[in-house]
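Bench notes, afternoon.
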Amino acid sequence: MFEVRKHKSLLKNFHKVVENKKVLFNDGENDIIYTGTNEYKNRLLCFIMFEDDEKGFLRYIHILVTEKQYSDFINQQTSLRNILNENESVFIVDLDYALNEIDQNLVSINEIPVDYLPLKNSFCPDFIKESSFTYAVSLLGGLADYHKAEAHELSDVSTHFSEFLKSSTSFINDFHLENRIYVEALKAGSFKINFLIEIKEPEQLGIFENPTYKIRNFLSNYFRYFFNKLPKEENSVFKSESVDSEDFRNLEKDLQIIYEEKHVLPKGGVEQKLIDLINHSATQIENINYNGSFKELKFEQSSLNNTDIPLGVIDNSFIPSIKNKLFDVSKFRDEPIKRIDENPKKYKFQVYQFNTNTGNGSAYFTDLEDSVSKITVHARGMADYKNTSFTKSMDDGKPMIFDGIGEYINDKLKKIICKM
């Protein structure tokens, strides 16, 4: 036991966990490490220092931590000792055996005897993380801390991470399954975007015998590797004949098991499939702007007991930290296939913008699958195009039938040239 000089806390109950408590490690008698938030919504990381049987109390250290520190601790990228050294001051909290608070004190870690401080290798112990197909992205810093964000920036993050999850789960298409990403509506005043991954099997196929927990667990490990381990890999990690990384190899084994149980092997092998997943996942989030309404993004997974497990906190330094390890996937994309009608055909579209002098405009086109897309329209052969079918379609807001030559890219109509 030790005594330290009494210090006065700046804010009442700043040290106290009142919401979102999650026990990270319990020895059967006491909560050894736990976390939660105080009434000011700040995160606390708490751990036991010692138990005094003679006086009948437990002494804990409560540390105010950032979401980045908490995520790094959960993912074993930093230790309790490192966090203490970074933060320099902590709360000492004494509890009786009924867990009622006896006393609390704000102190510098220099006032705590070294024997009572955690070791340098005091990393988060492994604990049961029940995975799910539900993920979330939270905006942190800047305007987001004041419950504000530019609408287009919020939409941009949602779009980028939807594509990120779509790319990260694309391997399941090899099993004749379909991956769909759903975004839940934002709660009022919240800047936490919730995503649900749905794996659908065609009704005519009843082949998927594997429990989906193997895919859930693989994705959890994949995201932990992507956000925490990948930035620390050597720049040449994927550029040798084989990948020499224990973390990558462990992840590859998880994916290998899923493929083997389905009696399927991806083209190029599982190693190449995993490298491709990483490359394409990174591409989806590389253009996020962190210099507007927010400074950081927290990516987490919702477990089956409705608690969130952080998988990573990233900012504008993340993509540069992995960029040199990846391939430029744009170099490997197939050249677009262009096709032009040999003879004029009848097309039905609605003009919504048109220049009567140049004959150039834009229109809405509905294909055979009822998918609406925007196309460009070029009318040719007249001095001007006033009082034509093009202007009538635009003025009435209705589609009309036109004769024209269509130009396609990858079987998608992009432009129609109409000769008058």
